[in-house]
Here is the input.
Amino acid sequence: MIAEETLVQELQQEESRAKAFEVLVNTYKERLYWHIRRIVLNHDDADDVLQNTFIKVYRNIEKFKGDSKLYSWMYRIATNESLTFLKQKSKKIGVSDQEFKDRMIDNLQADVYYEGSEIQLKLQKALATLPDKQKLVFNMKYYQEMKYNDISEILDTSVGALKTSYHLAVKKIEAYLKEH
Amino acid sequence: MKKDSKNRFNTPEGYFENFNERLMDRIHKEEMGETGSLIPKSDGFRVPDNYFKEVTPAILSKTKEEKPKVFQLKSYSSFYYAAAAIAAIFILFFNITKNTTTPDINFDDLASTELDAYFEKADLNMTSYEIAEVAAFNETELNDLLYNNLEDDIIIEYMNNNIEDFELEEFNLDNNNDE
Here is the structure.
């Protein structure tokens, strides 16, 4: 696997950019897809957002200063793109935030690329009751098995605050699953 | 079994030797949500077959479609906005001026009813002579006045309306003409 610094250098040089970008896409597409999918839930939406994320990365790679890791920077773009996508969609439909989340769950059941069992569907309903930050932390830690330090860099939140968020999220989800 | 000489409590064999290991293992499991939680380990999402193979060329083709951006050395947009603002101010100014200027009114613009109303209401204080001086009669009008035979009824009605204590006898006018 190519070292991150080398990849960044190649991405920032015009003659090597195309080849390096292909390497970048192949390296991160799956991880970013699952991160996005767990935010937007629907496959087609996740596909749109993933492509937009990589296009933004491509357009802005020259501005990347290397203050953070490349993959943290890409995760940040993916997170922002996903949340913005959802906001625009809810605004377009003209419903409240909670009503939009409920509709997302309803649509999920009709999604051919979702094969959730009853308990998995309940999990999504439980996740829909959480604040955005708690939901993000839970998905990144529980399903993507990311380290707190990496999540901290992506979400720009201290490790302590992340642990608290994760703990609260787990308790709330468990309580929801017990009640319903 | 290990005995505590003071409290007489027993601990299992090797309890303290591997305590740290067990503690760290539990912390790790808790962090990973593996403590017999109700939360399922997978969330039921899947992707279409070959999706991850096909998405790479889709993304790369989109980046190739992008044309190089042309940056203007000097942005003219601010000048356009300034020009538009100045034009808007001028248009507004001329419209206001045009609307507030009162047009010149001449005598022909007055309706005859307005003139009649003025003469009826205004106290002109003009004598017959003064009126005669300003009101020019041409010959035809004067002849109409002198030679037109007015009906007696009209004359009597005029007198009734304008002369107090009108007595027919005083004027030698008699309705019957017999007396």
Q: What stands out?
A: Residues 116-180 of chain A form a domain with the Arc Repressor Mutant, subunit A fold (CATH 1.10.10.10). Chain A has two domains: 1-115, 116-180. The mean pLDDT of chain A is 92. Chain A touches chain B at residues 18, 21-22, 25-26, 29-30, 33-34, 37-38, 41, 43, 47, 50-51, 54-55, 58-59, 113-117, 119-121, 123-124, 141-143, 145, 166, 170, 173-174, 177-178 (CB under 8 Å).
